[in-house]
Specification:
This protein has 528 residues and is α+β, with helices and mostly antiparallel strands. The chain has helices at 14-21, 41-54, 77-81, 85-92, 163-202, 215-227, 232-250, 254-273, 277-291, 307-327, 331-338, 350-361, 378-387, 414-432, 457-465, 467-473, 479-493, 509-527; strands spanning 30-33, 59-63, 102-108, 111-118, 132-135, 141-145, 151-154, 157-160. Helix 10 (307-327) crosses helix 14. The mean pLDDT is 85.
């Protein structure tokens, strides 16, 4: 088998291990080791050298097998546990800059083996940052790593690079750059074509704005109508949409129903981005009209769309539009999206209503492991925002997003941050609007509590400092009402994920002191 036939991917499953052992020999991207003790300095240094070399090509290290991929049984349990991912990365960072290695412990036919995946560095190499040396068994020092060293895989060996290696290391990066430039040019051409298509549609009759248009053409047409200040086609579209959407839902045609919602929410997003908030307001009214009139299950058309799906599909798009409103600082739109009523007056808002009905009907997606996806409305809204360009004009590159339920979340994700911020602000809009005599902390489910507080708490702090934002979002709401709402929402958000730590807490001093001061005032009132 050659390196070209070896698929290098960030997978460390038992199936992947079995396929690598079946190769039966070492390759440039595959190395077998009988045993490694990460607490033995000499072995750690040699292992770090191999990892540095693998950063030039990407590949796997299998510990617990001989050179022909046969399990040896020499890797003890204590040695294997040292390859815990966090411990392994910490050990390697003594000599190398942060390396996103992935590791997993497996047992095959009674033998322990560790599979380590080393990703290729984006530049094609990594630079050693500190000295790695040890005393040889016979005496004398062996210097393996020096600051500034670069290692490559040459055959099945890890060696320092030479001038002959440079072109080979840089050529994949250069190819990626050329491809990126080609993609940018193609995107520019597509944008020009989309604009031309939009102009052609905008030049047609007033009824030419229809949901059957593809997404790019629809968005381009909306831009042209707004640029020409011709809102008649937009208003006609919004008048038709509630009836058409409800008819699709009554027939059980979720694909058409969701397509109509996509076009409607994109219209609201384009209008918001172009400063036409009054049109976004009309879109919200349209969505409210659809939401308030669900299809009758079992009546009329055959196979009507279940009400819970009907509601949650709308709310996923509402949250996505809310995220855009947060980014654009359109606080009155944030308030309007949060404060819409539910069909059942027991609920404080449509956000709480739809989420509760969806949970009761078990319509949320499940992960590959069969568990219900965590996160409330936010994962659904995140998929919508990534899929519809009009909802994310602030994100230049969307290529790294994984839509699968339960997929890992990158540390930096501006769309997720904006969704969490909207959800946290919406909670305050809803909770400050409750009758104080009937205040209930469970009248809003904080979906944002499923994520780290750094994604949402800064917006609570900003609300307390920015008088203009507070007036637009919570007009006439006093400190006591806001303090009660913040304390109540925070209480629920901190317990959204029982058994998990470090996700959401009141990590901002401005917010914590505001809530603390409210508690003191409340205690004095109760005591007085």
């Amino acid at each position: 088998m050659t390196d070209d036939a070896l698929i290098v991917e960030p997978v460390v499953t038992a199936e992947k291990l079995a396929s690598l052992l079946a190769v039966g020999c070492e390759l440039r991207s595959l190395d077998f080791k009988q045993t490694v003790d990460l607490d033995e300095h000499a072995e750690l240094v040699e292992f770090a050298k191999d990892v540095a070399a693998f950063r030039s090509c990407g590949g796997y290290l299998v510990i617990g097998a001989d050179d022909q991929g046969r399990p040896t049984g020499t890797l003890s349990g204590s040695l294997a546990t040292k390859f815990d991912e966090a411990n392994l990365r910490q050990k390697l960072e003594k000599f190398l800059r942060p390396t996103d290695v992935i590791s997993a412990l497996h047992e095959l036919d009674g033998h322990r083996l560790v599979l380590v995946y080393v990703p290729r560095h984006p530049l094609g190499f990594t630079v050693v940052k500190s000295v790695g040396e040890y005393t040889k068994p016979g005496g004398g020092q062996k210097v393996v790593l020096r600051p500034g060293d670069v290692f490559v895989r040459r055959g099945t060996s890890s060696e320092r690079w030479t001038e002959a290696d440079v072109e080979g290391l840089f050529s994949p990066r250069d190819a990626r750059l050329r491809e990126a430039h080609r993609m940018e040019f193609a995107a520019m051409v597509a944008a020009i074509q989309q604009g031309a298509q939009g102009q052609a549609i905008a030049g047609g009759p007033a009824q030419s704005l229809v949901w059957q248009l593809d997404q790019a053409s629809f968005d381009g047409a909306v831009v042209e109508f707004i640029r020409r200040n011709d809102i008649v086609p937009i208003q006609l579209f919004l008048i038709r949409m509630p009836g058409e959407a409800q008819a699709a839902a009554a027939r059980g045609d979720q694909d058409k129903f969701d397509t109509m919602l996509d076009r409607t929410i994109s219209l609201g997003a384009v209008a918001l981005t172009l400063g036409r908030e009054e049109l976004t307001g009309e879109v919200i009214e349209c969505l409210t009209a659809i939401y308030q009139n669900p299809p009758e299950v079992g009546a009329g058309e055959e196979n009507p769309l279940p009400r819970a799906i009907f509601w949650v599909d709308i709310l996923a798009r509402v949250e996505a539009l809310g995220a855009l409103a947060v980014v654009l600082k359109k606080w009155t739109v944030v308030r309007a999206l949060a404060a819409q009523p539910a069909p059942d007056t027991w609920y404080s808002s449509w956000l709480r209503h739809g989420l509760t009905e969806a949970a009761r009907s078990n319509v949320f997606p499940t992960t590959a492991a069969g568990h219900q996806e965590q996160g409330g409305l936010i994962p659904l809204a995140r998929r919508v925002a990534h899929r519809l360009p009009a909802l994310r004009p602030y994100v230049a590159d969307d290529s790294g997003y994984d839509p699968e339920p339960g997929a890992s979340i990158p540390p930096t994700d501006p769309i997720l941050d904006a969704l969490c911020a909207f959800d946290a602000l919406a909670a305050l809009v809803v909770m400050t609007g409750l009758d104080p005599a009937k205040f209930d902390v469970h009248q809003f489910y904080p979906s944002f509590g499923n994520y780290y507080s750094r994604r949402s708490i800064p917006y609570w702090a900003r609300l307390l400092k920015d008088a203009e934002m507070r007036e637009a979002l919570l007009s006439g709401v006093g400190d006591d009402t806001l303090g009660r709402a913040m304390a109540g929402v925070a209480e629920v958000a901190q317990t959204v994920l029982p058994g998990r730590w470090g996700l959401w807490d009141i990590s901002d001093e401005t917010v914590s002191s505001f809530i603390r001061d409210w508690r003191v005032r409340e205690a004095n009132r109760q005591g007085g």
